[in-house]
Amino acid sequence: MGNHHTHHDDKAKPNPESHGGSAPSRSSIFGSSTKLNSACLIKLFQKLELTADEQNRHPGELSRATFENAFHGPLYKFGKLLYTQMVRQASSGDRERITKEQFTKAGKELLKLYDESSQLRYYFKLFASGKDHLTKEDALQMIAVSYALTLSASMIPYSTGSTDDSIFEGVVQGMFGINERVTFDEFTSWSKKNSPHLFCGVHNWVYQILTGSKMPSELETAKVPQLERFVEDKYVMSMGLLWMLTTVIPQSYTHNQEEKEKKEKQKTSEKNPLLNSFHLIKRLAQLTRCQSWTLLYDSREHGLSHNRFHHHISSYHGPTITLISFEGRNTYCLALDKPWREGASRFGGEDTMLIQVSPIFRVMQKNGPLATWNEYSRDLRKGIYMGKEGKSLVLFIPADFDSVEHYGVNCALHKIEMWGCGPSCIREEQVKQKQWEKKEADKHSARKLHLDVGKWEENPDKQILHWGGINVEHQFTRDSGF
Questions:
Q1: Strand pairing of 320-326 and 294-298?
Q2: What is the pTM of this model?
């Protein structure tokens, strides 16, 4: 399935000029490749047909077992569901086999799901096995399979951390509440608020499988970032939590600004006849598909104190994800689209969100300023506030960092960690700023030491102490070791 589509690329390319120079729409990009999709689906069917066991006596058809066996590991469950959905959609006849025509028809319908609302309806039906509702078992399977498919589409090795099962159960708990089943309308309402991009990774994977090529980058919505130097079970962050966050946080936390700038430069250089195709390919290969996140502060490693927190996160001028873990199995996520700033007023832009991660996954507050970081004002308790003005304060972390107040109830604070979501240049600027601050501090320290020792004879404190009857000559000689 690798590169059989490449000779059709010129036909499949969208024409920006036809959109007045603006980005092409989803429907225009998908619609322009209808013939290509048919050819890809037929080739995929033929490849699957070759994997059929020797007892397959129906040429031009695939048995259920042949189709399902093409899916391995955590993807096997999805293969079973996808086969049933495609057969249900294509024909009401024999459901133990699917013909090439039925397979192609169902595949083309699937590739026509241009927007997230149509994808939501399709995959809800798929995971509900055709029912008009989800059970808790259906929903848990939906979350686990969607996670596995998203990692696969993002070329991230599949893994589950020790906390992922509880996070996924918390998602289901937030979805169902006290109900035993969830209808499509109820699921849509929950998804819109708490996980609007739940099926983006699923559809990306399906698109890759059916067409043999990656979905165009401009159509990818919920990209999963790389975590620099990440080790599973070492942090509050886990791969499962990372994926769930990408289904709800805005693209400002994952969009690669450096990639955008490189693409703009690449467009300019394309006009240069001296730049050959090899250099163009090389430049395109260097473009990453998603922004990486870097760890700024980990209270277990750096110390659970306000001073250490301030030292590690100050001067970082990009969006951040902060995780706060405290007693009662509670974990919250503060997604800030603006740099942290000290003061008595709230900060945070329209992409700011406060999310409860566990024991229930749900968005608590969003849009607009909802964080305050007070270090100096006497009119306000010193510490970190999380909550919008006019609404209940959700969290307050006192300056001592020894506890956290959850809706006014005092709880033991376990851990805080912060991930920087900006491009690498922002992190580099922070490192340079910290190096400059250290250099200045060392200079000041050396100057102070020089005044204390080298300039003691000229220091006015010597005369004041002498007037007070203190033998300063003897004290200085003894302390200096001379």
A1: unpaired
A2: 0.80
For 479, the 3-state DSSP assignment is: helix
> Quick one: which H or E segment has residue 406?
strand 403-406
CA 153, CA 200: separation in Å to the nearest integer?
A: 10
A 10 A CB-CB count for 23 gives: 12
Q: Which amino acid does the sequence have at 251?
A: Q
For residue 163, what pLDDT is reported? Answer: 94
Supply φ then ψ for residue 411, to 5 degrees. Answer: -130, 155
Angle between helices 116-127 and 184-194 (to 10 degrees): 130
Beta strands in 83-175 (DSSP E): 97-99, 133-135
pLDDT in tens, 125-184: 999 999 999 999 999 999 999 999 999 988 888 888 899 999 999 999 999 999 999 999
Residues of the chain with pLDDT under 50: 1-22, 259-261, 263-270, 273-288, 474-482
Residues 466, 468, 469, 475, CA torsion sign: negative
Distance CA 347, CA 324 (A): 18
Helices within 212-305 (DSSP H only)? 239-246, 257-270, 277-285, 299-302
